[in-house]
């Protein structure tokens, strides 16, 4: 069995038993990437020399000692690019480590490789990258999902043991579902956003892509915690997120939100989800129907709030202190206008325009304020549901991976891909996508993701529930055969 | 804001470009007490067809003024971008119109899902970037300063 096909837990066993070394592991990974990434294009760049230096000094007794972790190219790692998959940040080099990177290093992990994404994390397919799309390892004609499509693809293709991504409206969970790996969005405020290039500050969270649920817990242990440099990070204690793994599910209640089981879900996705629900019943969980009545408004609310916040967060890209500056001689205002127009891609521009519009005088009350009020109702829906059940279970995505180019002309259709993931960001709760089977299209198997949503700060319970299903099935062992 | 249509021109050429549909409208600004004239032009059959299929779009204040908004956002868009975004964003805004059906009369807005308040720290100096680090990505620099276009006339 090749080193690169191992999970982190399996890798750690070998490292600690002395069967392999961090230097050897990194070399095996680099060889795998060199072999496979020209086809997949999950990585935008990687600094093997820096990672090697870290590997030489790695201490395998640390919680993630000697384990290379790939990083979405929107999280600052000192000395490395942070392109945000945008021309406007093409030549930027990070002068600092994000807090999650500092924490990973403290846990012995080695940040290695910059993963492709939709530009500024805006998208659901990674087609909005200014540097080319990433291929879904299960079918190169199809998308890996987005915005963290590169992170998901490299884990699925054994080009990484794990990767960090970010989730604003589903950008970890949806690509995890489409690529057949585990993707976790922590509770808002669980993980520091310091050093993550901000898209929507009240929605963004950094989270792990892994091959197994246990690995997800290992990563969450390392990156969680209050950070004085992120005033929205909460002062909640960090438990051992692997502590409940293996405990059985008797007595636990799983809620099926009736509004999430609608026409428009691909029948093969629905049947895989229904089979998973039956599996949960056989594992001892009680299935209860619940209602999240404001579900139909989630996408609308999101595209007002997220774009509004994005329009403010992306104002800093003005060509003054960093990033692309126009070569055309200009007044200051013209310099802003030209630099930004030259540097940003179409989806980013679209969202900045929409966000600026909904915040502008005369429209703020009708759009932004109203959306924030509906957000309260959406959040309340979850609070009410969680009084009856311990977690919610539903599809992650209404369909399996779609073909590249399918949605490019239709932004609204692209936005609706996030219909099951978006509400969790608005409510600030935690959510995970795990593999639960396959759909078939044109002779190719395409992964289907099951989504579990949990109460704020109850990731340990969420992982316990996810783990029980994972261990009772073989889905997590399937590989795309790249 | 009230918007009313004051004129429509269908078909023609302007500055060598095919224009399929131009709609002239007047916005009445309650605050300012006067009308503002504007025009939406739809340069392709697709966007014009869209506007005609949803004629209410022409009447709703949801018809986004991309040009003016781009100015606010400091984005120099091309005419083509303005027209394309006009159609695409009108579609998105139309979709979000259904939020108007929700009764929010007794609801407080949520700006922050897991809110914390008054997160302060002691007013003490801490390590931060050196000037070299801060200037490392600057497009133009000199004397430990970012060079920018003249702002004072």
Number of strand segments of chain A: 11
Q: Strand fraction band of chain A?
A: 5-15%
Distance between the termini of chain A: 15 Å
Biggest interface, residues from each chain: A-B, 72 and 53 residues
Strand order of the largest sheet of chain B: 1-4-5
Please write the string of helix (H) and strand (E) elements of chain A: HHEHEHEHEHEEHEHEHHHHEHHEEH
Mean pLDDT of chain B: 75
Described by strand count, sense and barrel closure, the largest sheet of chain A is: 11 strands, mixed
CATH superfamily caption of the domain at 3-244 in chain A = Amidase signature (AS) domain
As a whole number of angstroms, the C-alpha radius of gyration of chain B is: 23 Å
Per the CATH scheme, the topology name of the domain at 3-244 in chain A is Amidase signature (AS) enzymes
Helix content of chain A: 25-40%
Strand order of the largest sheet of chain A: 1-3-2-4-6-5-10-11-9-7-8
- The whole-number mean of residue pLDDT values of chain A reads 97
Q: Figure out the total of helices of chain B.
A: 5
Q: Can you describe this structure?
A:
The complex is a heterodimer of chains A (482) and B (153). Chain A is α/β, with parallel strands linked by helices. Chain A has a domain at 3-244: Amidase signature (AS) enzymes (Alpha-Beta Complex), CATH 3.90.1300.10. Chain A is 37% helix and 14% strand. Chain A has helices at 8-16, 22-40, 48-56, 99-106, 149-156, 173-179, 213-223, 267-282, 298-313, 332-343, 346-359, 365-388, 411-415, 422-427, 459-471; strands at 43-45, 68-72, 110-115, 162-167, 182-185, 205-210, 253-257, 286-290, 391-395, 430-441, 444-454. In chain A, strands 1-3-2-4-6-5-10-11-9-7-8 form an 11-stranded mixed β-sheet, sandwiched between helices. In chain A, α4 (99-106) links the parallel β2 and β3 (110-115). In chain A, α2 (22-40) packs antiparallel against α3, α7 packs antiparallel against α15 and α9 (298-313) crosses α11 (346-359). Chain A starts with 7 loop residues before the first helix and ends in an 11-residue tail after the last helix. By secondary structure, chain B is α+β, with helices and mostly antiparallel strands. Chain B has a domain at 2-99. Chain B is built from 5 helices and 7 strands, in the order βββββαααααββ. Chain B has helices at 45-53, 55-59, 66-72, 79-96, 131-135; strands spanning 2-10, 13-14, 17-18, 21-29, 34-42, 141-142, 145-146. In chain B, the strands form 3 sheets. A 3-stranded antiparallel β-sheet of chain B has the order 1-4-5. In chain B, strands 2-3 form a two-stranded antiparallel sheet. Chain B has a two-stranded antiparallel sheet with strand order 6-7. In chain B, a hairpin with a 2-residue loop joins β2 (13-14) and β3. Chain B is flat, with a radius of gyration of 23 Å. The chains are: A alpha/beta (482), B alpha+beta (153).
